[in-house]
């Protein structure tokens, strides 16, 4: 079953075609990698999927519904959560507060109820807290919940972003260079974590330059160059694709 279908998507900035007629599908339950050289348009594709940018042409179908034109918060409610290539956390807030910021998008009690602190609102808050702690445990940051985000290592800040994304209860999580700045051991643990996310039934779309991670964790890959899709297929197919080797992987990528 197809969860996400990107069809003929294009986005230009001035005269530059950052994304040029890109089409690909993400099967429900899969881990799909979006790869390609710097400036290929990968992050722009994510920004188009999550509503941060509007495409010039094309559609983004999620669960059979076109997301184009919807605001980012509506897209989160529909079940797409993301992390950012450049970490975006509330640096002076605690680890737990950062995750609660994700969980809040699912809370039903309105502002009036929040001010009156009705029992329903309190229950919801406790539930959000429990859930946020659960996500922190899941990514391995349970012990850090009281720490300020800015005091975490770079790798742990990336994990915190993942916890915050998971707290929105997504069907699809899109990760923009999750291993960026991680050491070998952290990258190893990240691979285990991404598989654990998949085991929860959450579909994963990721951008990554670490080919060791990509080739081990992804079931299929989409390759971009200069905004256009130049290949798609299994990791084995992509690794032996002459066009991809020339554009990105290089001859010594094996
Ligand atoms: N908001 C913007 N305004 C103008 N140009 C932009 C904007 N966002 C991206 N671009 C340009 O679009 C092209 C694609 O950028 P994008 O960030 O999508 O690449 P990328 O594949 O994610 O690269 P990297 O691997 O370096 O993160 C680049 O030439 C970039 O400079
Ligand atoms: Mg990018």
How would you characterize this protein structure?
The chain folds into two domains: 2-79 and 170-249, 3-Layer(aba) Sandwich (Rossmann fold), CATH 3.40.50; 91-153, no CATH class. The protein is globular. The model has no long low-confidence stretch (mean pLDDT 93). The chain is built from ten helices and ten strands. The strands form two sheets. It has a six-stranded mixed sheet, with helices on both faces. The chain has a four-stranded antiparallel sheet with strand order 2-1-4-5, covered by helices on one side. The chain has 254 residues and is of the alpha/beta class. The two termini are 32 Å apart. Helix content is 39%, strand content 24%. The longest helix is centred in the middle third of the chain and has 21 residues, at 119-139. It binds adenosine-5'-triphosphate (ATP) and magnesium ion. Residues 42-43, 85 line the site of magnesium ion (MG).
């Amino acid at each position: 079953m197809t969860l996400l279908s990107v069809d003929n998507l294009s986005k230009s900035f001035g005269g530059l075609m950052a994304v040029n007629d890109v089409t690909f599908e993400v099967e429900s339950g899969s881990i799909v990698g979006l790869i390609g050289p710097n400036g290929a348009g990968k992050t722009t594709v994510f920004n188009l999927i999550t509503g941060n940018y509007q495409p010039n042409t094309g559609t983004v179908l999620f669960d059979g519904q076109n997301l184009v034109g919807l605001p980012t918060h509506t897209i989160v409610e529909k079940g797409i959560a993301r992390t950012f290539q450049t970490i975006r956390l509330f640096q002076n807030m605690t680890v737990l507060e950062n995750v609660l910021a994700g969980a809040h998008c699912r809370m039903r009690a309105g502002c009036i109820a929040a001010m009156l602190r009705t029992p329903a609102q309190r229950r919801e808050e406790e539930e959000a807290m429990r859930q946020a702690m659960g996500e922190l445990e899941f990514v391995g940051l349970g012990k850090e919940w009281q720490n300020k985000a800015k005091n975490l290592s770079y790798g742990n800040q990336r994990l915190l972003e993942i916890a915050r994304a998971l707290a929105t209860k997504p069907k699809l999580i899109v990760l923009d260079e999750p291993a960026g700045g991680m050491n070998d051991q952290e990258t190893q643990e990240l691979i285990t974590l991404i598989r654990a996310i998949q085991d929860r039934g959450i579909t994963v779309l990721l951008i990554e330059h670490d080919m060791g991670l990509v080739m081990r964790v992804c079931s299929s890959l989409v390759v971009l160059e200069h905004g256009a899709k130049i290949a798609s297929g299994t990791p084995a197919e992509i690794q032996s694709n002459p066009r991809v080797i020339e554009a990105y992987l290089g001859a010594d990528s094996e």
